Amino acid sequence: MAVSAPKAVPLNLEQIHLQPASLDIWDNKYRLKTPDGKPVDLTLADTYRRLARTLADVEEPSIREHWYDRFLWALQNGAIPAGRIVSNAGAQKCKPATSTINCTVSGTIDDSMVGILDKVRESGLTLKAGCGIGYEFSTLRPRGAFVAGAGASTSGPLSFMDIFDAMCRTVSSAGGRRGAQMATFDISHPDILDFIRAKREAARLRQFNLSCLITDAFMRAVRDDADWDLVFPANPAELDDPDVTIVFRPWPVHDGYRTNERGEVACRVYVTIAARRLWDLIMRSTYEFAEPGFILIDKVNEMNNLWFCENIRATNPCGEQPLPPYGACLLGSVNLTMFVKEPFTNHATFDFPKLREVVGIFTRMMDNVVAIHGLPLDNQGEELRRKRRHGMGFLGLGSSMVMLGMSYGDNDSIRLTEDVTRELAITGWQVGVELAKEKGPAPIMEELFEVTPVMLAQRPQMRADGFLPGDQVPGKILLARYSRYLQQFPEKLREHIAEHGSRFTHHSSIAPTGTISLSLANNASNGIEPSFSHKYSRNVIRQGRKTKEKVDVLSHELFCYRALINPDADPDAVETENRLPRQFIDTNAIDPKAHVNIQAAAQKWIDSSISKTINVASDYPFEQFKEIYFYAYEKGLKGCTTFRFNPEAFQGVLVKQEDLAATLYRFVLEDGTVLEVKGHENVEYDGETHTAANLYDALKEGYYGKL
């Protein structure tokens, strides 16, 4: 039985209240409270007023009240700063040692004990302030390599990652919020196989996300079924050893190593393997364990606005912010569901003029966060002030598609994705120029950079424009005229950037927005994703609990559909397919290539990157699964991540009840008795009630000690 179109009547989303789960998450994560737990924010409106006041106070006194009103309006109409801003802006009296910055990357880890331990200390301070952090570990020599100063062989990068993992676990336990870390690793490092397999060991590296740095050369080797050298920079003795094969390769560290005229480093070949063997190992691990992730690092650097002065090798924990050493970025998302007019009707439209107005105000608001960053390291603060990186994105894209009558991945939805992202990008950079005129550009815009032969090789147009090696060129010229990302922008806007600079070097990224979506956006779909399901469980971290807590929620679109179209629905029921419009589909029903197409449509206008997860069914064929990654590469993405439910590995943050009900978890008691419990059933352990699935995860991840 088909669903008839609802009557074309005005539908007011503002009248829809927040779900209990949304208010609960706001209360536990974002509501400002005194150290003894007394609420400072009495209502959600107070939270918005706190944010607007704190960020408006950065302005000159004569215009503060004007911008307070505008900031508050934007917050009430879809602007949602990232979690660290919502939680910590204006909170100095209650928690003075916290930061408003979500994303950071460590300084380069030197291949020495002093260098490693120094970065452990810096990372501990960063995590203590509430910031996530990413590192590249392939700068460390491989397991078994000789260390002259110690007169012994090194235990390798993975063993040192264990130290960072333990530090993060300790710091996050003390602070009540689990720390977030990303480890990246070069696809040509001799220990890459160990890195790929690392998290198969229970309780190991559970404070890390892992991603391989995949190069164009490796992808060509896989395509051509060629061999692949695993290499590391050669020491002086190896350079003179006739039995050691030396090749020159791009490497993130040059100091102390021999280089050629192209800046490549002399490396020892440790072993040569078939590229497809390594590829299949990555794919199998990702298929079974959802890691490692897949960062196309050459594409990241090719499209970087600061191509002329940065070599990016790491990202923040969720991958949407590729950053240089000590890089930092502030985040924010626009709730797209707030711009859908007359949802679920034949007259549903998207309000682009209002979107542009909110983005314009939000860009200024986010820029003011730089003044109150609270980063613990001087290097981080200086990097942020010099470049003033922003990461504005959106959430609720999938929910908005459903409300507009679109199916995720169809032609209309791809067009909507590009249109929304383009408007966000162009509006943001227009405001960037206006702010540069008013307040001054990011300092790097006025700095002079020497033209090198490598730069001319990367950007041949520079030579055609008359630049020669040794010329000194302002950063704003190199960005406006030769950033490959900005070439698609209107010429007049690029001319203004070249003349005046911009207040920031980067404006956009799309973050996963997990608890922000669930709380402040009433469970709108995360970031760029479709809704995972329309009635499901979300695993939420609670302070003081070792397991995650299962929270049952409805998707934003189903919650709104019930309120606006079907208010008499049984609140405990899930509408059957013949009672819901066709666009209410399950994420597993979406073709993985449709996910890639949506990501590609957005990536065109996003100058940083996108955190995206392609969910596939448990029975999705492995050979087809591998094709997803090659398709992502061919579409020019900067990265790709997939998730397939596998209870033997971990269940993930979002869980369908039917998956848990169909999964038996085995627990061995102290007396040897085996207890089998379905994943959705409750069990008592350590004085608390847990779902069997969440308890199994906590035990496997080591939150009760290693099994």
Walk me through what this model shows.
There is one protein chain. β26 and β27 form a beta hairpin. By secondary structure, the chain is an alpha+beta fold. The protein folds into four domains: 374 residues, Anaerobic Ribonucleotide-triphosphate Reductase Large Chain (Alpha-Beta Barrel); 166 residues, no CATH class; 56 residues, no CATH class; 44 residues, no CATH class. The N terminus is likely disordered. The longest helix has 29 residues. Strands 1, 2, 3, 6, 7, 11, 14, 17 and 23 form a nine-stranded mixed beta sheet that branches.
> What is the CATH architecture assignment of the largest domain?
Alpha-Beta Barrel
Q: Which class do the helix and strand fractions yield?
A: alpha+beta
Main beta sheet: strand number and arrangement? 9 strands, mixed
Q: How large, in whole angstroms, is the Cα Rg?
A: 25 Å
Strand content: 15-25%
Nearest-integer average pLDDT = 90
CATH topology of the largest domain: Anaerobic Ribonucleotide-triphosphate Reductase Large Chain
Question: Could you provide a short overview of the structure?
Answer:
The protein has 707 residues and is of the alpha+beta class. The chain is 37% helix and 17% strand.
